[in-house]
Specification:
With about 325 residues, the chain is an alpha+beta fold. Among the domains are: about 70 residues, no CATH class; about 80 residues, no CATH class. It is built from nine helices and six strands, in the order ααααααααββαββββ. The strands form two sheets. Strands 1-2-3-4 form a four-stranded mixed beta sheet, with helices on one face. A two-stranded antiparallel sheet has the order 5-6. Helix 3 packs antiparallel against helix 5 and helix 7 packs antiparallel against helix 8. The longest helix is centred in the first third of the chain and has 35 residues. The N and C termini lie far apart (about 145 Å).
């Protein structure tokens, strides 16, 4: 039977095993196909990418490993801060957390608001009672709101609840009573002298705490009360002296006496009467009027027998200035620090 040497299949359908051809030593080209250059390049890039990926994963593992001890370290003994809490309490006397904008920039109360926003409550109180700011302006809704803000800021700076007896008296009694003294012109003689009496009562109250060992917050309350008295006296005494000329002097017309108040701060009063041509009558009148004039802190009292005619006899008085706190015992003034 003939054998097909290429296929190994006999022409009659039989199978014949072809003998293996010997391979010469060292000749691999005939048994293993040689890879092309582009395939080798792709292989190198693939292996390099796997190596880099392995490094990245290793580095990430190392990073996580080094961070775990810090996260798992023992917590500190201090309790965690609550939401909104300060790690360190804000210092006393600091500026308000949010600036007040109760009045506009071109208002008579703007300097008061600026002092309040600077955290200077005492200066804000002093500016609030300047003569240039009328009582009507203070009583408007925004004026009242500004006064309330000053009190609120004072309380915030002091950080004191009315717990002690001294703090309770100052904060809940003395200060509100002082703030309630009206600064408008008195409408009657009784109204005029009541305000003088209110200032003397405030001075006695301040004196009660002068020699007491106060805690710092209580001392701040007292200092604010004192500053409030000074500010209101500076404002009100010129108003009271003017009211003396408007209310009391006209009541003397039935005795043939007239007068007028003037000068810086309304500190001078001039009396006119025909009887004042006599020196004795002048001395008698001065002795009778001097106590009330001194309580209102007039500094000059002049007498003339006719207005603008003849000589004027003048007495100089030395009362305390408007910003001095104190009270009268008879004819003796007792200052309070």
């Amino acid at each position: 039977m003939a054998i097909d040497r290429e296929s190994g299949i006999g022409r009659a359908g039989g199978v014949h095993r072809r003998q293996a051809q010997p391979i010469e030593r060292g000749d691999w080209s005939k048994s293993v196909p040689r890879p092309s250059r582009w395939f080798a390049g792709v292989l190198v890039l693939l292996l390099g990418g796997l190596t880099l990926l392995g490094c990245d994963k290793s580095d990430a593992t190392k990073t996580e490993t080094t961070q775990v001890p810090a996260q798992s370290s023992a917590p500190s003994s201090a309790p965690p801060l609550q939401k909104g809490a300060y790690e360190t309490p804000p210092p006393t006397g600091q500026k308000p957390p949010k600036p007040y904008a109760i009045v506009g920039r071109d208002d008579s109360l703007t300097p008061v608001q600026d002092a309040l926003n600077a955290g200077d409550v005492d200066r804000a109180t002093s500016l609030l009672y300047l003569p240039s700011i009328t009582e009507e302006r203070r009583q408007r809704p925004d004026g009242k709101a500004l006064i309330a803000a000053i009190q609120s800021e004072s309380d915030r700076q002091i950080g004191l609840d009315a717990g002690s007896e001294e703090a309770s008296r100052i904060k809940l009694d003395w200060q509100p009573t002082l703030d309630a003294i009206p600064t408008r012109v008195p409408e009657s003689v009784d109204d005029l002298w009541k305000r003088v009496s209110d200032f003397e009562e405030a001075a006695r109250q301040l004196e009660e705490t002068a020699n007491i060992q106060l805690k710092p917050p209580e001392r701040q309350l007292r200092d604010h009360f004192k500053a409030s008295i000074i500010a209101k006296q500076r404002l009100l005494f010129p108003v009271l002296r003017r009211a003396y000329g408007q209310i009391i002097i006209p009541s003397m017309s039935d005795m043939g006496i007239s007068g007028r108040v003037g000068g810086a701060g309304n500190r001078a009063v001039t009396w006119t009467a025909a009887a004042f041509v006599n020196q004795v009558e002048i001395e008698t009148a001065q002795r009778g009027m001097s106590p009330n004039l001194t309580k209102l802190r007039f500094t000059r009292s002049a007498y003339e027998w006719a207005r603008g005619i003849g000589g004027v006899y003048t007495y100089s008085m030395r009362p305390p200035s408007d910003d001095v706190i104190g009270y009268w015992e008879g004819f003796v003034f007792k200052p309070v620090q």
